[in-house]
Amino acid sequence: MTARRRGVRGFDGSALRSTRELRHMTPEELARAAGTQASLISDYEEGRRVPEWRTMAALATALTAEVTQLRPGHVTTMEDLRCAAGQGQDAAGATAGLGRSGYAMLENGHTRTLRPDVAAKLATAWGVEADEVVQAHAVAVQAAGVPAPVLEGAVLRGLADHFAVTPEALLDIARSLQSQTERRRS
Fold first, then answer.
1. For residue 99, which phi and psi values (nearest 5 degrees)?
2. Rg for the chain, CA atoms, rounded
3. What pLDDT shows up at residue 74?
């Protein structure tokens, strides 16, 4: 299993360099304006390091740019919004009125419905519009793909017994219903 690279997902060092050069700034000037070290600017631009969210925001501010300019082609996720606000999953769950695991299911797209009141609470806490939270959740749902039927083990056997069918027949019914749902969505 490969360890996940720390820092802002989708960060592009070449975008940082081109934005800095477009603003006619040296790495030293950008470092001073962003409150970091010039050697880090070089590491970011060369792809040796990836800034954390707080540093990324400071770089964007110093360059009078949007964070999205430093992450070209990367869609914004709920994780991105949460991290940009400096919030952990526990705090996001509390904000949304959910536990950490309930929030994690939402962030990862496994909870396919985002209630408007939850989107509004998260948007307020993260300093963004509710539509951005809704869009970021839609990205997560799409990335999660279509869930497999949750029928296995004792649950599958118990339901099959209850409906007086074989476990295989019950799985066939579930797959058929899932296929019908997918066709309606298309």
1. -80, 175
2. 22
3. 83
Amino acid at 172: D
Tell me the C-alpha distance between 106 and 96, whole Å: 10
Residue at 88: amino acid letter? G
Task: Give pLDDT tens digits along the chain (186 positions).
Answer: 343 456 788 899 999 999 999 999 999 999 999 999 999 999 999 999 999 988 998 999 999 998 889 998 888 889 889 988 888 899 999 999 998 888 998 998 888 889 999 999 999 999 999 999 999 999 888 888 765 555 667 777 888 888 899 888 888 887 788 777 767 765
pTM over 0.70: no
The total of other beta-carbon atoms located within 10 Å of residue 166's CB is 12
Give the amino acid at 81: L
DSSP one-letter string for 17-32: HHHHHHTT--HHHHHH
| CB-based contacts of 19, cutoff 8 Å, min separation 6 | 63, 65, 69, 70
* Cα 109 from Cα 78, distance rounded (Å): 9
As a whole number of angstroms, the distance between CA 167 and CA 35 comes to 62
Contact 50, 16 (CB under 8 A): no
- How far, in Å, CA of 87 to CA of 59, rounded? 19
Sign of CA dihedral 72, 74, 78, 80: negative
